[in-house]
Amino acid sequence: MKTKRTPIGKTQRFEIFKRDAFTCQYCGATPPAVVLEIDHVIPVSKGGGSESHNLVTSCFECNRGKRDRHLHIVPDSIAERTERARELEEQTREYEKIIKAKKKRITKAIKDVETVFQERFPEYSFTPSFKQSVRRFLDDMPPSAVKEAMEIASCRIGHRGADNVTKYFCGICWKTIRDNRGGE
Predict the structure, then answer these.
(1) In which domain, by residue range, is 33 found?
(2) Which of 6, 72, 85, 160 could form a disulfide with 164 if both were Cys (CB 3.0 to 4.6 A apart)?
(3) CB 49, CB 6: distance < 8 Å
(4) Alpha-carbon gap, residue 159 to 120, rounded angstroms
């Protein structure tokens, strides 16, 4: 069912551009970066007319790319895309807050474990690589359990030196993780 193309007047063209905020409804491009045109959502060759509800603002590239294909879904409006972008931005901000709070909790938990260690060995501090090991244990164990593992290691073999305490501590943590996973 082929419809005869009726010309789109300058007034109607301008009204469509205004309605669509002078933005390509397919890619979001705006002048002066692109030349805007009017596109038939349902192509004239597929029975579409030149009524306003069947017309959208399109850039030259998108209009040529679509050609005379029928859209089964009308493109999102700029307002809908703006709202999605705003929602994404808010979700990103909230996610970053959560990550920052988690990092702060983990840093505090590592410091708490180090404090227990330094009660026995005040002259020692954790190396960055050992802090990474503690962080790994905190991924699989509650902070209180990791701290308790250091307390146990310090009490049981503290007399054998700092290196032996850290090795024993790691052994306790790995055993706890394996037990929690069902002995994998």
Answers:
(1) 10-75
(2) 160
(3) yes
(4) 9
- In the numeric block, the tokens 């090795």 are attached to 167
Greater model confidence, 115 or 53? 115
Is the CB of residue 62 less than 8 Å from the CB of residue 27? yes
pLDDT digits (tens, 9 = 90+) for 103-150: 999 999 999 999 999 999 999 999 999 999 999 999 999 999 999 999
| Residue 60 belongs to domain with CATH number | 1.10.30.50
Amino acid present at 150: M
Q: Can you name the residues that pair with 37 across neighbouring β-strands?
A: 58
Whole-prediction pTM: 0.55
Kindly state whether residue 105 falls inside one of the protein's structural domains: yes
Q: Is 101 in the same domain as 174?
A: yes
Sequence-separated (6 or more) residues with CB below 8 Å from residue 104 = none
